[in-house]
Amino acid sequence: MINNIENALRKFLFKYSEVDLLEVMIDTGAGKENISLERGGMNITPYLNLWACNIFEGESFFDAMKEVSEHDDWGFLEDITDQVGSNSFNISLTEFYPNWPEQVKQGDNKVIKLLGKNAKYLSNDTIFIFHHVWDWPAIDIRTGQELYIPM
Predict the structure, then answer these.
(1) CA-based torsion, 40, 1, 104, 51: positive or negative
(2) Residue 37 and residue 97: Cα distance in Å, rounded?
(3) DSSP conformational letter for 60
(4) H/E/C letters for each residue in 2-16?
(5) I need a labelling partner for 5 at 20 to 30 A (CA). Which of 51, 88, 90, 145 fits?
(6) What is the DSSP-derived secondary structure letter of residue 34?
(7) What residues contact residue 138 under an 8 Å CB cut-off, 6+ apart?
(8) Per-residue model confidence as pLDDT tens digits over 72-109
(9) How far apart, in whole angstroms, are the C-alpha atoms of residue 58 and residue 98?
(10) CB of 80 within 8 A of CB of 56?
(11) Residue 151 lies in a domain
């Protein structure tokens, strides 16, 4: 299954290798019929969602991320980007998160490692970030650390 996840990721990265921003988000919101985790009577499946975006000319990624941080609202990032591609709720991560939500950190570390291994398929100019839906802070995949936002 990990090979399927990596293949789907690589296919997406190859297709959108020259975008300004590649946003990777973990989301459990939509789910599908083939849910495989049970938690307190609730079915939970984490998915790897991918968005490829270009930043509108004259806009600043870091200024938008300051606003996201200050207001806890990812809409500030959406306001400055043009989405050119996405893959949502197709890549199940149950293998990375077998004990959701108790072992989220361990699953995140595995996903970040996989993303970092595949960052080479993107332009060096592409901003490559990871986060959970609506959660802050984002992780800079190239450094493996919290996204640095110059003030």
Answers:
(1) negative
(2) 9
(3) -
(4) HHHHHHHHHHHHHHC
(5) 145
(6) T
(7) 65, 129, 130, 131, 146, 147
(8) 899 999 999 999 999 998 899 989 998 888 889 999 99
(9) 43
(10) yes
(11) no
Assess if residue 116 is contained within a domain: yes
| Structure tokens, 55 | 């930043």
**Token couple for 141:** 């995949």
Query: What's the 3-state SS for 69-138?
Result: HHHCCCHHHHCCEEEEEEEEEEEECCCCCCCCCCCHHHHHHHHHHHHHHHHHHCCCCCEEEEEECCCCCC
What's the domain count of the chain?
1
In-domain check, residue 86? yes
Name the residue with tokens 């361990």. 106
What predicted TM-score, i.e. pTM, was given to this entire model? 0.89
Q: Which residue has the tokens 């990032």?
A: 77
Q: Tokens at residue 127, please?
A: 């901003």
Instruction: Kindly state the tokens that stand for 112.
Output: 């970040």
Distance between CA atoms of 148 and 16, rounded to whole angstroms? 23
Q: Which domain holds residue 112?
A: 2-146
What residues does 128 pair with on adjacent strands? 22
Q: Which amino acid, 112?
A: I
